[in-house]
Amino acid sequence: MSRANFPTNQDAAAADGARHASEDALIARAQAGDLAAFNQLVLTYQNLAYSVAYRLLQDPAATADAVQDSFIKAYRGLDGFQGGNFKSWLMRIVVNTCYDELRTQQRRRTDGIDELVQEPEPLPTLGTRPESPEEYAERGELNAALEEAIAALPEDQRTAVVLCDIHGFAYDEIAAMTGWPMGTVKSRINRARVKIREILLQRPELLPPSFRPNTG
Question: What is the DSSP letter of 205?
């Protein structure tokens, strides 16, 4: 392949612009009552919505219900979308729906321990080189420890770190989704990171060598 055949930054920008134009067209059609257009938006964002909701609710059945309810609310509330970042607008609905479910669970909860459920997908990990069986097992243990640490956070900190560090949303996007002031977003992310670090440092054998505390 010649150099001329590689996509340029201008090509990428054009493709991104075309994608946004296509999404804007789908939104306009959906606002006009075109259910097929809205279903295309659902297909685009359902995996993201599920991943965010699962890490907030930690329960597959509750997550599925929350995602379904979120898309129903989004469809019914499309007239209220006045343009801008549709993904952030939609994820705010998802987060708020999850908070409603967490409040409902809190009211229902009695003494006892919530059933431990299996995480459907691992956290992203560093590195792409082939792993040995031992490294694969260690990575699985580290991912499990990370998920447990995230699940142990207060729900506001869990929301902040899930949106920022797992799904890569910017601070301003998280502020738009949650309704929190920018300073609150940053504070909750920082507090969550500190708590996760404290939890993981209790199991230094799972951490890469560069992250382990210096005991010598």
Answer: G
Tell me, what CATH number does 60's domain have? 1.10.1740.10
Same domain, 155 and 206: yes
Q: CB of 44 within 8 A of CB of 50?
A: no
Query: Structure pTM?
Result: 0.70
Domain boundary among 92, 107, 122: 107
Question: Structural domain of residue 65, as residue ranges?
Answer: 15-107
Long-range contacts of 191-195 (CB under 8 A, 24+ apart): 191/157, 192/150, 192/153, 192/157, 192/158, 192/160, 192/161, 193/161, 193/165, 195/149, 195/152, 195/153, 195/157
Instruction: Please enumerate, as own/partner, the contacts of 13-17 that have beta carbons within 8 Å and a separation of 24 or more.
Output: none
Judgement on whether residues 85 and 152 belong to the same structural domain of the protein = no
189: left (phi over 0), alpha (psi -120 to 50) or beta: alpha
Which of 150, 151, 156 lies closest to 186, judged by CA? 156
As for how many domains the chain has, the answer is 2
| Lookup result for tokens 């900190």 | 157
Mean pLDDT rounded to a whole number for the chain: 80
Which of 107, 123, 145 delimits the end of a domain?
A: 107
Q: Is the pLDDT of residue 13 over 60?
A: no
Output 145 or 17, whichever has higher pLDDT. 145
Average of per-residue pLDDT across 82-86? 90
Domain at 209, CATH number: 1.10.10.10
pLDDT surpassing 80 at residue 121: no
